[in-house]
Amino acid sequence: MQRSDYTKGELMEGDVLRDPFAMFREWLGTARDENVVEPEAFCLSTATVEGRPSARMLLLRGVDHGLLFYTNYLSRKGRELTENPFAAMTFWWGDLERQVRIEGEVHQVTAEESDAYFASRPASSRQASAASPQSQVVSGRDELEERVAAEGTDRPDHWGGYRLVPTAFEFWQGRPSRLHDRIRFSKVENGWLIERLAP
């Protein structure tokens, strides 16, 4: 199988911002401007206390002092985050030959934040989120559709937001001959330690 070379950009020290949040927003903005499909999509990796990993795709819903996403607290990821709050996000923007990995500790957002986001969603999405027993076995699609039809549009207690507060960012830019650029930000007491990693 023939492999494509990466030729669309570079990540030199002079390109690196001192604030990883600012750099992430810049890269995300570029992905949006370049019409990358689902630029907010990321892979969330969690693990049980025994170290058994799982991963799934989600959508980023905001960036402040952390990265926000919303889900069912009773889902597999919700249960794993209760047991082990450390997680990782991976964003892949293939059209730009860029990847960002973010590691940190995850905390539930306030009920007010969850209410505000839930209220902003279409009524059909609110019903589906409230009705679905996420990650549980169901008898068939008919059962799910019946649950949704019977459900109201208020936010249930088992659905809400999380904020991943980063301890590390890694920005990856594909380069020719697999000599890729990797820049890591590690949280330290007085800010961020910035280092280049070998590809």
What would a concise description of this structure say?
The chain is α+β, with helices and mostly antiparallel strands. The protein has five helices and nine strands, in the order H-E-E-E-E-H-E-E-H-H-H-E-E-E. Strand 8 and strand 9 (191-197) form a beta hairpin.
Order of helices and strands: HEEEEHEEHHHEEE
Number of extended strands: 9
Count of alpha/pi helices: 5
- Write down the overall mean pLDDT: 93
The class by helix and strand makeup works out as: alpha+beta
Task: Report the β-strand fraction as a percent range.
Answer: 35-45%
Q: Can you identify the CATH superfamily of the domain at 13-67 and 77-113 and 163-197?
A: Electron Transport, Fmn-binding Protein, Chain A
Q: What would the principal axes of the Cα set say about the shape? A: globular
Q: Approximately how much helix is present in the residues? A: 25-40%
The residue ranges in which pLDDT falls below 50 over 5 or more consecutive positions are: none
In the CATH hierarchy, the architecture of the domain at 13-67 and 77-113 and 163-197 is Roll
CATH C-level class of the domain at 13-67 and 77-113 and 163-197 is Mainly Beta
Largest sheet: 9 strands, antiparallel
Distance between the termini: 22 Å
Using the coordinates shown, work out and report the CATH topology of the domain at 13-67 and 77-113 and 163-197: Pnp Oxidase, Chain A
